[in-house]
Specification:
two-stranded parallel sheet, 213 residues, 8 strands, 6-stranded parallel β-sheet
Length: 213
């Protein structure tokens, strides 16, 4: 909600790319972008494309088998995107920036590529760190683009803003305009299995931990 509506100022018919569109955050973003009548692009494994179309994604892209900037260039007629939500990190940040149209906004909220497998990989961390771009202020000015970092866990003192966002989301839920997608629940004792389920990218939607009363 904050990325699309507060920072991104999403307007009707703008073009929005959501990386990891079949995940919990991704599907939430899809539903919120749909309410603003945006043109929605989503990246996900091809096995999840059918569900994403049902959720309102207009263009689904398998980033494992397609060159994403080339695909976006073709789909937008060379214009580019107004908003990109990117939780991947590494080279993806540079690609996402490249795909922005003038006045486009890139929102960075994670770096999941630093943890690509089931085991800790220090080499992968450093490799993707080295591939992250440096956004020079003059370049941003000349290209009329914005890069915004988002870390919700560091906004706890912004109580008025968070309360307003939560109340708005609850109202949308009561009205039936959004419907959170739950992929699977695990008991708290099975938290490692829940993490493995996420790491294997088997989920469509959120994975929840449950606690017995």
């Amino acid at each position: 909600y904050l990325m699309l509506y507060f920072w991104g100022r999403l307007q009707a018919r703008e073009h929005v790319l959501i990386h990891g569109a079949a995940g919990g955050v991704g599907l939430a973003a899809v539903q919120l972008a749909r309410l603003r009548h945006a043109e929605i692009y989503g990246t996900a494994a091809s096995s999840k494309h059918g569900f994403l179309h049902e959720q309102g994604v207009h263009h689904t892209i398998d980033y494992y088998h397609h060159d994403l900037p080339t695909v976006i260039h073709g789909l937008t007629g060379g214009r580019g995107l107004d908003i990109v939500l990117d939780p991947l990190g590494g080279r993806s940040f540079a690609q996402s920036y490249k795909m922005l149209a003038p006045l486009g906004r890139l929102l960075l909220f994670g770096a999941s590529r630093m943890s690509p497998g089931l085991r800790r990989n220090v080499f992968a961390v450093f490799w993707h760190l080295l591939r992250m771009p440096r956004f020079h202020p003059l370049r941003l000015i000349n290209e009329n683009k914005a890069v915004i970092g988002v870390h919700l866990g560091r906004l706890w003192d912004q109580t008025d803003l968070l309360r307003e966002a939560m109340q708005a989301l609850l109202q949308l839920y009561v009205q039936g305009q959004i419907n959170p997608v739950i992929a699977r629940t695990f008991p708290l004792a099975a938290a490692p299995a829940a993490h493995r389920y996420l790491q294997e990218r088997r989920n469509i939607g959120k994975v929840l931990l449950t606690i017995d009363a």
